Amino acid sequence: MPLNRRDLLKAGAVVTGAAAVTAALGTCGPSAYAATYAHPGLLHTAADFTRMASKVAAGTQPQTGGYAVLTANSHSASTWTPNAQTTIDRGSGTAENYGTAYNDIAAAYQNALRWKVSGDSAHAVAAVSILNAWSAKLTSITGTADRFLAAGLYGYQFANAAEIMRGYSGFDLSAFKSMMLNIFYPMNNDFLVNHNGACITNYWANWDLCNMCSILAIGILCDDSTLVNQAVNYFYSGAGNGAINHAIPYVYSDGTAQYQESGRDQGHSMLGIGLLGVFCQMAYNQGIDLFGYESNRVLKCAEYIARYNLGNDVNFTTYTWGSGTNCTQESQTVISSGSRGLNRPIWSLLYNHYVNLKGLSAPYTKLYSSRVSPEGGGGNYESTSGGYDFLGFGSLCYSL
């Protein structure tokens, strides 16, 4: 029986991944999850799409305002022409072309959303044409270490667009799954296991988190329990900074918790909490509640980041880590004000889950959600990659 959004169903099967992967990723508590998955079941469920469409049809806010932002975005036009590449290349000094990928992914996702809300099949055809073009052409992801960011960010996003379109006439889901399993997943796995040959703490948490999101999304898309187990077990007890207690190392008595990159800058802090929201949402839609881990540790971190970026003071504990290949010790003694007050389409997901669904208090997350509402997506923020790190449109998609 498919998992639903409300029930936590954990199976007793043994993880079937390779021993090397298991050793590197670790386990915590039940280590295997049910092998039957609900579809659609990544960031959005069938019930979510029904809600979106009915709210927009009724003119309800903020969904209607969110939909207006979506339809005004050029990426959502059904006339979008895909620009698939044989290679996605990312990294300074290389033949960078990864912008073609994140633009096409934004277009595929946004057209898929417009189809689900409006019923206009022209948008479904547009989304399918983009996804089919990439699965027919892409052969590799290359570049500097940034290639692992590309594999993680665009892996989870591609999978989400495909999950919406699965079953639609003309969509070659088999070819798309092959692309995800043979091009994206090996790089996601390689990063989590080997970390590009660096000290385990060298890479910031967002590097792990985007690759975790990709593995989880691919696992659900492909009904592959080994991948789902790998991603969820890494969240609990992975060796790198994406594991939950490494990504959020310090919890304070005031109900906030410091993020691993808080001493770096606020743009990457928002990237990190946003990716944690994405990861938890995809797991939750398959009955795995990571939002509630350790008395809502993710919420405490969201409150910390929102509180500081709204202009308030927060606690800060000196953060020390090992860098490079020799784990040279470095420390940050104060929180960074870099990119403070940045807007990102990450807050509606967190606010609606914790406040409107769970009934918890999240005053700073609520304020930030109101500040950025209605949320846009790729093309509504800056034109560089940071503006495309999230699929967005949370006011439409997550408002309950």
Give the tags.
single chain; 400 residues; mainly alpha; two-stranded antiparallel ribbon; 15 helices; 51% helix
Structural overview:
It is a single chain. The protein is mostly helical. It has one domain: Glycosyltransferase. The protein contains 15 helices and six strands. It has helices spanning 19-25, 46-57, 63-72, 98-118, 121-137, 147-165, 173-194, 205-221, 225-237, 244-247, 266-284, 293-309, 347-357, 363-372, 394-397, and strands spanning 87-90, 140-143, 250-251, 257-258, 319-323, 328-332. The strands form three sheets. Strands 1-2 form a two-stranded parallel sheet. The chain is globular. Residues 1-30 have low confidence and may be disordered.
Morphology call: globular
The figure for the number of domains is 1
CATH class, please?
Mainly Alpha
CATH topology: Glycosyltransferase
From the alpha-carbon coordinates, what is the Rg to the nearest angstrom? 20 Å
Short description:
The chain has 400 residues and is mainly α. The protein contains 15 helices and six strands. It has a single domain, classed as Chondroitin AC/alginate lyase (Glycosyltransferase, Alpha/alpha barrel), CATH 1.50.10.100.
Secondary-structure blueprint:
Layout: H1 19-25, H2 46-57, H3 63-72, E1 87-90, H4 98-118, H5 121-137, E2 140-143, H6 147-165, H7 173-194, H8 205-221, H9 225-237, H10 244-247, E3 250-251, E4 257-258, H11 266-284, H12 293-309, E5 319-323, E6 328-332, H13 347-357, H14 363-372, H15 394-397
Parallel strand pairs: 1-2
Antiparallel strand pairs: 3-4, 5-6
Helix pairs in contact: 2-4, 4-5, 4-6, 5-6, 5-7, 6-7, 6-8, 7-8, 8-9, 8-11, 11-12, 12-14, 13-14
